[in-house]
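Handoff note, outgoing to incoming analyst
You'll be picking up this chain. Sequence as last confirmed:
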Amino acid sequence: MCVLFFLSGGLSVNDGASGRNVLGNWSLVSSSGCGLVNTSHGVYANCQWRGLQSIPQDLPHNTISLDLNYNLIRTLYNDSFTYLPDIITLILKDNQITLIEDGTFQPLGNLKELTLENNKLMYLPTGLLHANKLLSALSLRNNKLTSVPTDSLPCFPKIQLIHLKDNMLSSIPEFVFWDLSGNYLDMLDAGTFKPLKRLEMLFLSQSAIKVLIPGVFDSLTSLKTLDLSNNDISSVSGNLFISQTQLHVLKINSNKLYSIPISLFKRTQNLYKLYMENNKISKIEQGTIFPINITMDVSGNPFTCTCELSWFVKWLRSSNSELSHPNDTLCSRSSFKDMVKSPILSFDPDQYCGINILLITSVSLTALLVAAFALFAYWKRWWFNYKVFLLRLAICGYKEMVQDFEDQDYEFQLNLMYQEEDQEWVDDVMKPVLQERFPHLDRVVYGDDDLHLGMFYINALHYAVENSFKTVLLLSNNSVREAWFITKVRIALEELNDSRLDKIILFFLEDINDDDLPYLVRLFLSKDKPYMLWTDDEDGQELFWAQFEKSMRANRELNSVIPI
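Most recent structure output, in case you need it:
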């Protein structure tokens, strides 16, 4: 696995033993004009600015450092270095190199540092550096590379730097990563950095990145520094840094961010420097998690200094965090009028965001209005139900009432079945209404008194039910306790099943607890059969009689029976 670190600056030539710089004090000059210095470790050759068009072939075989900067070399051939097997440092910066032949660096088994920056390379040959297992630093910056084939650069066990800045890359090799600032990456997919679990520093600035797919950094568990500055990122997901528990420095400044997800920094508690300046952030959502002891720069954002931002200002003042450039972290034009263009740390939430009397009053008034409307609706519930019933009739009509009332089909038009205790209601309510509103109903059976006198009681009950257009059962707390009344309910339901006509109606004269309802009544109601509830409310009574009138128009055919 490669361990990659970003090292700023150029490559220097050092004496491997002492670490001292040995550029200078050249004691010999080769026939090609290169300055030579002989040390106990080998020869250092300085061939800068010699106008060379190819690799000089007159250098000592024990040359360990070769500097060919600022020449006119165009091609590196596969035999260019065959006589220089000891080279450790090779610098070919600022030439005109467009082609490197296969096997060019194969003889250089000791090569540790290779610089090819500021050339015109458009591609790298297959297996370019497979033989260079000791390579620790490679610079290919400022070329014209559009891609790096995965078989061109193997994963070197001793690598410390691979530099590809300022190329024309549109994709990243899956197995290795380096400083890619100045390239065109647009969108980074999940899994891009999967092989780089030990990568610690990653630079992606000025790479035209617009989208960061969730999971793109999940494999970078050792990442400590991440630079995403100067891109076109407008949003990020809350779990973007879920694996970056060791992240110390994050630069996401100079993008187009409008907001920060609440959980973005939940797992980055070791973060101590955060750069978010020059974005488009107007507010920080309440509850956003920030690491403790963090230094952050959020200047150049259009913060809206209103009550929504008050928690963030209070947090900045009370926590151990430090705000960089506080005088450049200003309130935008959408802030409270007095705060426009003022530093956000001068915003006093207690002055502007005390108890909101208007809001409390509005909420309280709304609650009172809702409660009053609910009480009014309950009080006038029967009136509302009646009006809804009439509206439904107006819209839907009497589609189910396809059969006209025909007197000649039945001996009785209406059969009322009830107990003696409910006789008073029949006399005081039912009879007067039938006479006033339903004068055409003149063949009515009023309880047991109107049963056929020449029959046994049970037979007379059956006869009345079978020969009535409608049978109405009056239910009260007294009637549901009487065994004979339950018998009447059974007889009515048997007729319902036999005739397959919806000719039975239940009248509830008062509220009856569910536990007190007989099984047959509950069975009847479970089949969505017609019932009506009597009430003392005038609107409720009007609805009651309107529903009764509708039910007396026809008997609907049934598709199922009641299991009794």
